[in-house]
């Protein structure tokens, strides 16, 4: 068993592109679910809108990079408005149903045969990331400390990614410690009480949905750029559920919860996966083969999430006192 | 000095009601809220059907009635939490039909709830601050720059502290509202409503679920609202409380206002007695009536069977 390889891979995953993408997705969800209590089960849709807004503008319409970014952000805002207008007046569970369906609609639209010329069908789009990598200040080569390292392209994605995560965290910290954030948290507790105090609940929920959606779209940009390609089936509901796992693991309604959650989630996921692969290859585990490791890994994620909810529902940063209040 | 003021307000309120007839819809000398033909139906059931009602400014008015009389539905309609099928009502002369709940509150008509809505995972102080109106920091972009709203926030905090002191919640300032007892939550809800700066305070069963030891203190706070020049309209079941603090009582039954009057005489009004004790409705069925009902039901069943065949 090559323990060195196992830990190197795990740590790389904990600070790597997946961790960044899920951190952004979960920061967005934290704004929706953690602070405002909106059950958004369509975060994958926001990532898809961001990724495809960027990719389509550049690859299909030959627009400059920044037009692509602007389109992705604007797309997320419009998507949030479309979702919010019919559902935010309804009870929370309806939003969950509508958002999960809307995210699937986005995925099915971009993979449709009829729009193949625009979105590239199931093959998706590529050749839109040249401008992004042209801005790369890292010269070609490997960068790292000891065995942990990334190539120059990944370094550039990670630099941009962690800066975006930091910016998003600062923004979330500022607004959630302001009267604006107080209204959101109050809406999470009881909408009618907030209404009775003269606040326009609908407008605040919409703002929260847009804000969290835009942060999710940033994750979508990085998802597309890090792969230099985007395919519709990357944006299945799995992203949303992983993002929820990340959020609950880190602790909902905590600024750094989603960030630490994402890092730990990917670290553990790859640690267990590489560990099992190594064990199978070295005949330590003999009753499964390497191809089965992936599926078993996801089963373990499920078990882990259940255990987390039972034994530490407040997550890493949460306050047990707060969770206990719900029981009353 | 204070005691004088108390008696003046109370006396002024009572003087305003002096000699008014006890018919439903009696015009008041200075109404703050005027309601006309408000109707709410849930399918075939008419939950509220109020012909005319005026609420006197600066007084404490109680809204009583047996269970299912439509008091809470009526309350919800007036405050914009439920829509009205028909009718109109004005607050300070401004039309309120179709106005959403948050705008109703901004105009100075603030309500509390029967099932207390303390915002559990916010501290008592945050609950209070939320009540303040026109906060600069409640705009997303201004929220990003604390310098813009910090000053106002401090003023709000000061005002909240005064109110918490008055409602004996100052020690709980930094506790989660969810950790308060039922009675303390009622107090918090009332104090929070005052942060809005209301003219008319609408209390939906302020005494429900409150420990008797706290009742007196709550009563005192309700009376204080009138002394500060606010108008109070409250729903309540506890007749002792109604007699103690209200200046005028409105009685609802089966969705309609059936009587109004001063608290010490209203309960002997025959219409009210009927509504509460059901003089006409709850008399046991006679043998003939039972037989008749049975036949009716059978005939109905037979006709249904024939239709299907």
Helix and strand layout, with pairings?
The complex is a heterodimer of chains A (328) and B (309).
Chain A (H helix, E strand, L loop, with lengths): L2 H13 L1 H19 L7 H18 L4 H23 L4 H19 L5 H4 L5 E2 L3 H5 L7 E4 L2 E4 H25 L2 H11 L1 H6 L4 H27 L1 E2 L6 H14 L6 H25 L8 H22 L8 H7 L2
Antiparallel strand pairs in A: 1-4, 2-3
Chain B lengths: L1 H16 L13 E12 L2 E12 L3 E5 L6 H8 L7 E6 L2 E2 L5 H6 L2 E3 L12 H8 L8 H4 L2 H21 L15 H14 L4 E5 L7 H16 L3 E5 L3 H7 L2 E6 L2 E6 L1 H4 L3 H8 L9 H22 L1
Parallel strand pairs in B: 3-8, 3-9, 6-7, 7-8
Antiparallel strand pairs in B: 1-2, 1-4, 4-5, 9-10
Helix pairs in contact in B: 4-7, 6-7
Task: Summarize the model shown.
Chain A has 328 residues and is mainly α.
List keywords for this structure.
heterodimer; A: mainly alpha; ABC transporter involved in vitamin B12 uptake, BtuC; two-stranded antiparallel sheet; 15 helices; B: alpha/beta; Rossmann fold; six-stranded mixed β-sheet; 12 helices; ABC_transp_permease (chain A); branched-chain amino acid transmembrane transporter activity (chain A); cell membrane (chain A); membrane (chain A)
Describe the fold and architecture.
The complex is a heterodimer of chains A (328) and B (309). Chain A has 328 residues and is mainly alpha-helical. Chain A has a single domain (3-326), classed as ABC transporter involved in vitamin B12 uptake, BtuC (Orthogonal Bundle). Chain A is 73% helix and 4% strand. In chain A, a hairpin with a 2-residue loop joins strand 2 and strand 3 (148-151). Chain A is globular and about 65 Å long. The mean pLDDT of chain A is 92. The radius of gyration of chain B is 23 Å and the shape is globular. Chain B has helices spanning 2-17, 71-78, 101-106, 124-131, 140-143, 146-166, 182-195, 212-227, 239-245, 263-266, 270-277, 287-308; strands spanning 31-42, 45-56, 60-64, 86-91, 94-95, 109-111, 200-204, 231-235, 248-253, 256-261. In chain B, helix 4 runs parallel beside helix 7 and helix 6 packs across helix 7. Chain B folds into 2 domains: 2-118 and 180-283, P-loop containing nucleotide triphosphate hydrolases (Rossmann fold, 3-Layer(aba) Sandwich), CATH 3.40.50; 132-175, no CATH class. Chain B is of the alpha/beta class and 309 residues long. The chains are: A mainly alpha (328), B alpha/beta (309). Chains A and B meet through helix 8, helix 9, helix 10, helix 11 and helix 15 of A and helix 3, helix 4, helix 5, helix 6 and helix 7 of B.
């Amino acid at each position: 068993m090559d323990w060195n390889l196992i830990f190197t891979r795990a740590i790389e995953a904990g600070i790597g592109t997946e961790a960044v993408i899920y951190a952004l997705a979960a920061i967005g969800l934290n704004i929706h679910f953690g602070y405002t209590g909106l059950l958004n089960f369509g975060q994958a849709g926001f990532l898809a809108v961001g990724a495809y807004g960027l990719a389509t503008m550049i690859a299909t319409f030959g627009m400059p990079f920044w037009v692509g970014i602007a389109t992705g952000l604007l797309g997320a805002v419009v998507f949030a408005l479309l979702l919010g207008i019919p559902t935010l007046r309804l009870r929370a569970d309806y939003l969950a149903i509508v958002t999960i369906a809307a995210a699937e609609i986005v995925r099915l639209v971009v993979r449709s045969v009829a729009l193949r010329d625009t979105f590239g069908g199931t093959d998706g789009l590529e050749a839109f990331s040249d401008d992004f990598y042209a801005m790369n200040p890292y010269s070609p080569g490997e960068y790292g400390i000891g065995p942990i390292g990334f190539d120059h392209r990944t370094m550039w994605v990670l630099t941009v990614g962690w800066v975006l995560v930091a910016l998003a965290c600062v923004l979330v910290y500022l607004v959630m410690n302001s009267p604006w954030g107080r209204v959101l948290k109050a809406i999470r507790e009881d909408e009618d009480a907030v209404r009775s105090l003269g606040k326009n609940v609908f407008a605040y929920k919409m703002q929260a949905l847009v804000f969290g959606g835009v942060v999710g779209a940033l994750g979508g940009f990085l998802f597309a750029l890090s792969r230099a390609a985007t395919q519709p089936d990357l944006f299945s509901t799995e992203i949303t559920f992983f993002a929820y796992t990340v959020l609950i693991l880190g602790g909902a309604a905590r600024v750094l919860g989603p960030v630490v959650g994402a890092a730990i989630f990917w670290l553990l996921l790859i640690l267990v996966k590489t560990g099992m692969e190594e064990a199978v290859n070295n005949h330590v585990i003999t009753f499964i083969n390497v191809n089965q490791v992936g599926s078993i890994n996801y089963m373990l994620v499920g078990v882990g999430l259940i255990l987390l909810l039972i034994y530490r529902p407040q997550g890493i940063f949460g306050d047990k006192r707060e969770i206990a209040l719900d029981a009353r | 000095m204070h005691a004088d003021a108390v008696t003046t307000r109370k006396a002024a309120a009572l003087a305003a009601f002096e000699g008014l007839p006890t018919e439903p819809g009696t015009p008041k000398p200075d109404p703050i809220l005027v309601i006309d033909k408000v109707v709410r139906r849930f399918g075939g059931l008419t939950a509220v059907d109020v012909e005319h009602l005026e609420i006197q400014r600066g007084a404490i008015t109680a809204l009583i009635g047996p269970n299912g009389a439509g008091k809470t539905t009526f309350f919800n309609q007036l405050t914009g939490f439920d829509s009205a099928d028909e009718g109109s009502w004005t607050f300070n002369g401004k039309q309120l039909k179709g106005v959403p709940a948050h705008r109703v509150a901004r105009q100075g008509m603030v309500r509390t709830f029967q099932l207390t809505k303390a915002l559990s995972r916010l501290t008592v102080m945050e609950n209070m601050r939320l009540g303040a109106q026109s906060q600069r920091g409640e705009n997303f972009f201004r929220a990003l720059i604390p310098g813009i709203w910090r000053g106002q926030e401090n003023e709000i905090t000061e005002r909240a502290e005064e109110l918490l002191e008055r409602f004996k919640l100052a020690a709980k300032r930094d506790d989660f509202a969810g950790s308060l007892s039922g009675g303390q939550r009622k107090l918090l809800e009332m104090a929070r409503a005052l942060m809005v700066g209301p003219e008319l305070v609408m209390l939906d069963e302020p005494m429900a679920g409150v420990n008797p030891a706290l009742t007196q203190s709550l009563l005192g706070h309700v009376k204080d609202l009138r002394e500060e020049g606010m108008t109070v309209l409250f729903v309540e079941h506890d007749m002792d409380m109604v007699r103690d603090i209200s200046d005028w009582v409105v009685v609802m039954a089966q969705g309609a206002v059936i009587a109004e009057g001063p608290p010490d005489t209203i309960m002997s009004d025959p219409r009210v007695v009927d509504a509460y004790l059901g003089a006409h409705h709850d008399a046991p069925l006679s043998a003939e009536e039972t037989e008749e009902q049975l036949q009716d039901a059978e005939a109905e069943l037979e006709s249904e069977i024939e239709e299907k065949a």
